[in-house]
Amino acid sequence: VLRAGQAKFKLLEDEVCCGDLLFLMGRREEAEKVAQRLMSKIMDAHVDTIVTPCAGCYRALTREYPNLFDFNLNVLHLSEYLAYLIRDGKLSFKEGNKIRVSYHDPCELGRHCGVYEAPREVIKALPGIELVEAEASKEDSRCCGGGGGVLLSYPELSIAGAYNRIMRDIMPLNVQALVTACPACYISFSYAIERYELNLKLYDLAELVSLYI
């Protein structure tokens, strides 16, 4: 997707965790050690902008790291960067299948960081996509069940949360697919869809975009 948008980028070599989950679970000393390792690698890469497709990494880099480091890097969620590429005319799309979708707002991208419009802007730019909003969306979106360490600590509760979100808010919309912009949300929803054999496709935002390039 980035190459299609003519982006000049490098991948971080030997990437380590950002520490977001440790921050959320209150294990701050461990989180800061992990953050230090990642920050060292970022500085060694000599970049001025970081783009991440993960809502958790975005939250950590924009909310936690500025309190720990002399931090003057520009941090963008992938949805924000793709929206910029589309507005700048660098990323265009071909006609594809007509799909009726709903977008799930990740807690950490939405309520924590206020990023609501960029993912929707990207989805609406895809030819043939019909975006249908759930009543519980944006600030009122229900959690996927996987955030804050719940998926690791209480997997059954996490799956129940994902199932609740899908059945109460998404399935009544008569959509073919659910789109999200967070790996944790994606994992939680995938477990629920598989366990209950739900007739619903699941896409990460970048995955959906790639279908129209």
Write a structural description:
The strands form two sheets. A four-stranded parallel β-sheet has the order 4-3-5-6, sandwiched between helices. It has a two-stranded parallel ribbon with strand order 1-2. It has helices spanning 20-24, 28-44, 55-64, 78-87, 117-124, 150-153, 155-170, 183-195, 205-210; strands at 49-52, 74-77, 99-104, 129-131, 177-180, 201-204. It is built from nine helices and six strands, in the order ααβαβαβαβααβαβα. It is globular. Helix 4 packs across helix 5 and helix 7 (155-170) packs across helix 8 (183-195). With 213 residues, the chain is α/β, with parallel strands linked by helices. Helices cover 42% and strands 12% of the residues.
Mind sketching the topology for me?
Blueprint: H1 20-24, H2 28-44, E1 49-52, H3 55-64, E2 74-77, H4 78-87, E3 99-104, H5 117-124, E4 129-131, H6 150-153, H7 155-170, E5 177-180, H8 183-195, E6 201-204, H9 205-210
Parallel strand pairs: 1-2, 3-4, 3-5, 5-6
